[in-house]
Please model this.
Amino acid sequence: MGILSGKKALIVGVASKHSIAYGIAEAFAREGAELAFTYQNEKLQSRVEKFADSWGSTLTFPCDVASDEQIDNVFKELGKHWDNIDIIIHAVGYAPAHELDGNFVDVTTRDGFRIAHDISSFSFVALAKGARGMMHENSSLLTLSYLGAEKVLQNYNVMGLAKASLEANVRYMAASLGREGIRVNGISAGPIKTLAASGIKSFRRMLAENAKRAPLRRNVTTAEVGNAAAFLSSDMASGITGEIMYVDAGFNITGMGELED
Ligand code: NAD
Ligand code: 0WE
Model:
């Protein structure tokens, strides 16, 4: 019996086989969870429907997280199939591309800042608001962050601010929902080549540098993030809330790395 058997999970953020949300869905399906998905727009609809089918799910709903109406609609429609939700996975982040290339002070705009924070941080609490009536004692929420929330990483720019906001959001949501027995956590994942990374200049070099300095001397996979997500969303983590857990091959603990290997 899997550690998530009997649990119902809504997964937000599948776009491709390389998505972190895809690795999470694989782990969740293996551990016995029942799954539902959202997709950002019609372009992704058929792909997400096919993925859902491969995990035995027919529950897919459109949801651009910039829209309160679309968020409300997800839970209205999901409520026709499920009485409650045990797990919500938030694996969504976005800033306009021009914000992520160049000198922070030069490239950051009011609009880019607003969009990054809206899509990458506010949307997490927005989903919690939408799901409120379907969540219960023992439900849990999980989001994805990155080290750029805490340390300056070249070109991550306004996304670093948005992830700092998201991590604070994890703590405020955990405090807000804790009295109802609802847990809220985050995973700070190491860099992975996903669609969200594909447009980023020198991402390959970053991956190589990252692997060189990380204690495990390699990068992490979406399957590894999926396994950590399964643990945090399971009853095995019943005492954990408000936490940001690193799944980064240990990169975050290093200072300078080794001079020679
Ligand atoms: P991805 O491109 O596969 O997933 C990003 C998802 O965000 C996509 O499914 C996309 O449809 C969705 N999205 C963007 N704007 C949206 C909107 N307005 N409404 C609804 N959905 C929207 O990339 P990923 O790397 O799997 O990203 C998932 C999460 O993991 C993000 O929060 C990202 O910041 C975080 N993360 C990624 C890495 C990495 O190196 N890839 C590392 C740490 C954390
Ligand atoms: O959180 C992320 C991805 C963030 C992201 C990526 C894009 C590219 C396409 C947000 N918005 C957009 N908008 C686009 O138009 N990561 C942790 C992966 C990532 O992105 C970086 C990184 C890393 C690592 C950007 C610059 C530097 C490092």
About this structure: The longest helix spans residues 110-131. The chain has a mean pLDDT of 97. The pocket of 0WE (ligand 2) is lined by residues 93-95, 97, 100, 146, 153, 155-156, 159, 191, 196-197, 199-200 (CB under 6 Å). Strands lie at 8-12, 34-39, 60-62, 87-90, 140-145, 183-189, 244-247.
